[in-house]
Amino acid sequence: MRRTRVGIIGVVVAAALVLTGCAAEPAPTRAPSPPATPVETPTPTPSADPLASVDALVVRPTVLELRAGEEVVETLDYMSEPAAAVATLTELFGRPPVDEEYDGGNHRPDGIFHAWGDFVLDERFYDEERRQRDGYDWLVWPRFAVYFDGPAAEGIALRAHDGSQAGEAWSALAERPSFDPELWVCVGTSIEAETIEVPDDRADRVNVVATEDEEDGTVRWIGAPEMEAEGCA
């Protein structure tokens, strides 16, 4: 009996050792995954308004330049639609213009002066049907012209390409190389000319002109476009 009991005890102990050995090797556990990092969508930044940098209007023979320093930000062609030009300038100056209608005469149609202080855009109501029929282009019938009656408007400088400004001494203007009293125009004196392609029987230069205030010897106004002419009626 003793022998049998010892054998039973041995079996029990052996079984316990086997179970103990199994418990000593626990199943591996998976480490928790780190939380996912959210992907941030970049917020689009509004593009800067290019007109906000404009600090000068520069009158040229065929276009009005809107400049930031010496960089040309935008140009307004005198044969472009006046409404679009007025909209651009309204945005630039931050307010609509003061409008003044006028009656035309023998040499020009009715129109509207759109004024922001000393800057004036002269919208001209030429007959568009006749323009198309007779082949008139901007050399004869510009859709608008511009005038600078002073050196600045609403904080924006007004000048010609050579730096000339309304209000300065006429004698100083006359010393500049671009001043050309020999180039015949019907209004004022040419201070910048641009040669363009036109039919043989037409003048070929368009100009920025300046007029003199003879009372005080200053530049009364600067404007464009004005065509070279063989004579004035």
Fold and architecture overview:
This protein has 233 residues and is of the alpha+beta class. The chain has one domain. 20% of the residues lie in helices and 31% in strands. It contains 4 helices and 12 strands; from the N terminus they run H-E-E-E-H-E-E-E-H-E-E-E-H-E-E-E. The protein has helices spanning 2-23, 82-93, 128-134, 170-174; strands spanning 56-59, 63-68, 71-77, 98-102, 111-116, 119-124, 144-148, 152-153, 156-160, 189-195, 205-213, 218-227. The strands form 2 sheets. Strands 4-5-6-7-12-11-10 form a 7-stranded antiparallel beta sheet. Strand 4 (98-102) and strand 5 form a beta hairpin. The radius of gyration is 41 Å and the shape is globular. The termini are far apart. The model is unreliable at 1-24 (pLDDT under 50).
